[in-house]
Amino acid sequence: MRVVVLVDCHGLYLSALGAALAAVLTDRHILVARSLACARHNFRPDGKPELALIDMTTPDVSWEILRLLRQQYPKTRLLAMSHNSNRIDALRALEIGLSGFVSKSQSDEEIFGAITDVLSGRIYVPPTVIHLDQAESPSVAPRAPELNANKLTPRQRAILPLIAQGMSNKEIARALKIAVGTTKIHASSLLRILGVRNRTEAAVIARNFILDEKGADSASVELVENGTRWKR
Q1: At how many degrees (to 10) do helices 199-212 and 87-95 cross?
Q2: Any idea what DSSP says for residue 78?
Q3: What would the DSSP string read from start to end of 158-210?
């Protein structure tokens, strides 16, 4: 049976979420752990567990640890979770290649929907990441309304959706079968074209551009009520 692991140092929340998921995901075995160290005994290179939902406030959890965990177990989908609906943290999750981010402040339906999305191979981000506050300054929430496909080279057009998925330069290089150095050059050029400072901002802009681009493949991005889902 396929396995889903929950990691959270808050016992009551962990038990409640575990029981709720067991009732919803009847075809999967739900394992709960109060630390990542305990949960890691269940990780295997062949993709077990299928998904790990990890609370960022757990003492032995950090963004760097999750980045390394993803590198070590690339077949396991990792979903970060936090009490706060923090846009920066959500973008950070994409930047290090996780399958998404959920907030405990979201509704039960949104959290279950996020988990279902990630299990189906999509990337989930809360609506707060995409529907940016219009009052924010451009330096915080950059936009690129004048960007058009004619400004991009064929290689940049190929890299753009991969950046939107939160892939690293190494992952993009493997996907496109090009050198990492070549990927870095094209990615840097894209950041300049998008007018952003880093890849987290680029991921948001790239996603909006893909949606708005005339002739874009509508199957590659699916907007839903409870968040944004990227198909890998």
Answers
A1: 90
A2: E
A3: HHHHHHHTT--HHHHHHHHT--HHHHHHHHHHHHHHHT-SSHHHHHHHHHHHH
- Beta strands 28-33; 77-82: pairing state: unpaired
Q: Two tokens at 166?
A: 């939160």
> Which two tokens mark 25?
């995901």
Q: Tokens for 2? A: 């396929």
Calpha distance 24→19 (Å, rounded): 9
Single-letter residue type at 159: I
What is the value of pTM for the model shown? Answer: 0.59
19 alpha carbon, distance to own chain's centre: 25
In 3D, which of 117, 123, 118, 89 has the Cα closest to residue 103?
89
Beta strands in the chain (DSSP E): 2-7, 28-33, 51-55, 77-82, 101-103, 122-125, 221-224, 227-231
Instruction: State pLDDT tens for residues 111-141.
Output: 998 999 899 888 887 776 655 433 343 444 4
